[in-house]
Amino acid sequence: MVSRQIWIVDFGSQYTQLITRKTRELGHSSEIMTVKQAKERFKNGLKPGALVLSGGPDSVSEDKENYHEFFNQENLAVLGICYGMQIMAREFGGKVEKGLLGEYGHTKIHATNGFNIPGVKGDLEVWMSHFDTVTEAPKGFKRAMESHNKVLAAMVHESQPIMGLQFHPEVDHSEGGKEILSYFYEKLAGLEKDWDESEMLKEATALVQSIGDGNVLCAFSGGVDSLVAATLAHKVLGNKLHCFFVDNGLLRPQDHGHIKTLQEHTDLNITVLDSKEVFYKKLHGVDDPEKKRKAIGVTFIEVFEEQVHAYEKDRGIHFTHLLQGTLYPDVIESISPHEKDGKSVTIKSHHNVGGLPERMKLKLLEPLRFLFKDEVRRLGEELGLKYEWVHRHPFPGPGIGVRILGEVTPERVLKVQSSDQILFEELHRQNFYEATWQAFTVLLPVKTVGVKGDARAYEEVICVRMVNSGDGMTATWTDAPRELLSTVSSRICNEVKGVTRVVYDITSKPPGTIEWE
Ligand code: XMP
């Protein structure tokens, strides 16, 4: 295990991963861990260069656990963000009060008492998301920043490298966030930079090399993550790597074309497993989003296991490892970070990190597990992959299954496939593909009245969604050109059978998620 300079203790905030992101952008390595893991490390005499305590969904007044070891390490720099600041205030004898209503959104704050952060001046609009507030800073702390209505926004210890922030500096929407984090790491904690992008390839390659001798199989989707993971692994493993692409019947026409291109233009050994009928059968009558996700995940595992065993028998080989393009956000989401009381803040059950390895008795090989999406893209380019392959829009593991609200049937699949095809043709034709981070269509489970020809129609609704994002953790809806929206809308109504209305989704994340299910 590579040791990281900064430990980020996760109290269950939706933004914890963004702290790592921002920390890396500032040139420092960090890792996220649970409260329990951090406490164990301190107990074993380990100590980080700096400790960051994340935000969290709970109320400090209901949290009976003590966190003394986070605050009583000699000279350890500690940054508490939101919930982290509240436990800090409680620990040092300040006053934390429960708000009647939560505060979510932008707030203006400014420095007080001569507090000065290089590069930061005047009013800052920052992102707040909290229930409790520190109404009295503890003794020994100075009020460093306040909101206009005098809510304490930042406090700094007068003699120790300890700082608390009520807002989220890690969120892009927080002005001055990067400067404030940099101030903490470099001025308060006195850390030297220890992370740059060349570390990514070295670490990932070392991880693949560490498996020694063995045959590796890859659940290959053709998306950026599995493509980069497979290309990297292929460089080390050569023909010991076998990729399998499951056609679950929930793909778009462009996905089939893409796999064919990769089969023809890369050295990867890719086998397509045609399993459409099995998936449709398993999805028959399922309309609950979570049940649908689970059904797709379980069927994927069953199909994969059966067909891969047949392949092993046929070729006389035995697979020892499963290569997955798992990224850091998936890892964090899947380990239930808030394990101190067994609670997790899972919003959606993720398809990718299923029970496959246990079922097939395979060891996991996840060379990208410490990376975020944009980092993986840069790594892909470094490995020589074509620009358009590593800059494809993300496409979720459960495919258009999570874009068909209500039951998945072959007819409804076709509606999404056809409308998606139109959207992508127009995105390319009107030169807008790169201007949005992800674009897709969703079939809604409602019918509306329309006029087709001269007759009344009573048909379904397609929603077009386009978002801009850095890593999918937060997103804003794309302000798409009127001409694009208008062409897409009229083409879908005219060309897709059974659709009379097209709507455009103008919800950002949060509060919406990117996918509808
Ligand atoms: P949400 O809907 O959670 O999506 O805001 C964030 C990003 O993740 C993709 N997504 C998935 N990707 N398996 C995946 O591989 C999944 O189960 C899954 N669910 C959502 C989504 O397309 C967006 O890019």
* Relative helix content: 25-40%
Output mean pLDDT.
91
Spans of at least 5 consecutive residues whose pLDDT stays below 50 are 337-345
For the secondary structure, the number of strands is 18
Please state roughly what percent of the residues sit in beta strands, choosing from under 5%, 5-15%, 15-25%, 25-35%, 35-45% or over 45%: 15-25%
Q: What is the strand arrangement across the widest sheet? A: 2-1-3-4-9-8-7-5-6
Radius of gyration: 25 Å
Q: What can be said about the biggest beta sheet?
A: 9 strands, mixed
Bound ligands, each once: xanthosine-5'-monophosphate
Structural class: alpha/beta
Number of helices: 16
Q: Gap between N and C termini, in Å? A: 35 Å
What is the overall shape? globular
What keyword list fits this structure?
517 residues; alpha/beta; five-stranded parallel sheet; 16 helices; 18 strands; binds xanthosine-5'-monophosphate
Structural summary, described in words:
It is a single chain. Residues 337-345 have low confidence and may be disordered. With 517 residues, this protein is of the alpha/beta class. The chain is built from 16 helices and 18 strands. The strands form 3 sheets. Strands 2-1-3-4-9-8-7-5-6 form a 9-stranded mixed sheet, sandwiched between helices. Strands 12-11-10-13-14 form a 5-stranded parallel sheet, sandwiched between helices. Strands 15, 16, 17 and 18 form a 4-stranded mixed sheet that branches. The protein has helices at 16-25, 35-43, 68-71, 83-91, 177-188, 198-209, 224-237, 253-265, 276-283, 289-315, 328-334, 356-359, 373-382, 387-390, 410-429, 482-495, and strands at residues 6-9, 30-33, 50-53, 77-81, 95-111, 124-136, 141-147, 152-157, 162-165, 215-219, 241-247, 270-274, 319-323, 363-365, 438-452, 455-469, 475-477, 499-504. Bound molecules: xanthosine-5'-monophosphate (XMP). Xanthosine-5'-monophosphate (XMP) is lined by residues 348, 350-352, 394, 396-398, 438, 472, 509, 513-515.
